[in-house]
Amino acid sequence: MKLDSRQLRYLTAEDWRVLTAVEMGSKNHELVPTVLIAQIAGLRGGSGVHKSIATLAKSGLVAKIKNAKYDGYRLTYGGLDYLSLNTLRKQDTVFSLGNQIGVGKESDIYVVADPTGKQLVLKLHRLGRISFRTVKANRDYLRNRTTGSWMYLSRLAAMKEYAFMQVLKREGFPVPEPIAQTRHTLVMELIDSFPLRSIDNVSNPLKLYGELMDLIVRLAKVGLIHGDFNEFNLLIKEDPVTKKSTPILIDFPQMLSTTHENAKWYFDRDVNCIKRFFSRQFKFTSDEPGPFFEDAIKDTDKNKRLDIEVEATGFSRKMAKDLDRFVEAVGFQNEADEDTAEVQDDPDSHEVDQDYSEDEEEDDDEEEEETNSQTAHEDQTEEELAEQ
Ligand code: ADP
Ligand code: MG
Q: Mind naming one GO cellular-component term on file for this protein (predicted)?
């Protein structure tokens, strides 16, 4: 479903309470019993709860589940989007929602404005949206995912991306400034730029190539490999006065440590992505071989291991492991490899989360394929789902 902020204004304080209650109840229930929603919302009995639930269901923020064994609702991605927007609005990070500027396979990108009118970027992670039919995926792993566990993974992706952006920015790497993060979303600086893929001509390809390879090596020196370093994740920003262009690196949820067992493979893939692109787009091939992984990590600064530092932040080892399991099962799609996956836009295909079929709101309990489950998500712990 598309993010539409108009509804935000029409929700009453009570509706918000009920939506928040569904989110809280989702901690332990894929389908949150209506009685529990009422209890958490503190609106015992009364018609108020039912009225709010009806409003939320009509807007597609909560949904019923087909063949449910008891009366209840689950949170949809739309609901999670709204809760996030509301949090960002309350903390004065975001004032208004603008146009969608990117539809990634596993994210949506919007321009938003802060209360002073400054434009920013809102990224919403959407893990589980792509169809995995064409990917060499671990199907059991995917089949057993519930909506809640996709949301959990999307949240981990946002947390990880934010944690890495913070340390990279602090260390002077050319990345957007991270501004806020909540649930499956993050807010960052808007880079006025063109993605490298859309640039047909550069005045000095050798110089740009050198800068990009330096960036890969600099990352390795602080213990990191981007893992998806390609023309889609590099934005070329031109200084309006000097006309000097600088590459800005984005998109970090698949970032990995140089101590990862396949680190060399990922490092080489990043290097080769750039080589292939420069040869295809600019007919440029460097005379110099490399850079090589072994050389890059030789003089790693032991006191500046950002991979280790991030592990010590809110993005815990357990979270990293959960996200890694997803990456191993399907891999974050390498965007340079366009034909390996497709966005889930076929309403008849129910391999992954239902929230993405546009017609979900009307379908209500008719189309939902999920089964009723009263158990906690295997990978959701109290601490991980606590309000941020
Ligand atoms: P995905 O995980 O879907 O690939 P990205 O973070 O790579 O998400 O963003 C997708 C696209 O959105 C980028 O290719 C770029 O065009 C645009 N974009 C993302 N972040 C920014 C930003 N901070 N400033 C400007 N454009 C951005
Ligand atoms: Mg990207």
A: nucleus
Which atom from ligand 1 is nearest to the alpha carbon of 232? 14
So what's the architecture of 1-83 in CATH?
A: Orthogonal Bundle (1.10)
* Contacts of 151 by beta carbon, 8 Å cutoff, 6+ apart: 26, 75, 77, 80, 183, 184
Contact status, residue 208 vs residue 247, Cβ threshold 8 Å: yes
Q: Calculate mean pLDDT across residues 167-183.
A: 98
Q: Is the CB of 226 inside a 6 Å radius of any atom of ligand 1?
A: no
Catalytic residues: 228
Q: Closest Cα to residue 63, out of 350, 377, 344, 372?
A: 372
List CB-based neighbours of ion ligand 2 within 5 Å: 232-233, 251
Binned at pLDDT 50, 70 and 90, residue 314 comes out as confident
**pLDDT at residue 271 above 80?**
yes
Report CA(340)–ligand 2 centroid distance (Å).
15
Domain boundaries, the chain: 1-83, 194-332
- How does DSSP classify residue 296? H
Query: Atom 6 in ligand 1: which residue has the minimum CA distance?
Result: 251
Question: Among 69, 87, 60, which residue's Cα sits nearest to residue 30?
Answer: 69
Question: Does position 239 have pLDDT exceeding 90, yes or no?
Answer: no
Indicate the fold that domain 194-332 takes in CATH.
Transferase(Phosphotransferase); domain 1 (1.10.510)
Burial class (CB in 10 A: 0-12, 13-18, 19+), 260: middle
pLDDT, greater one: 323 or 276: 276
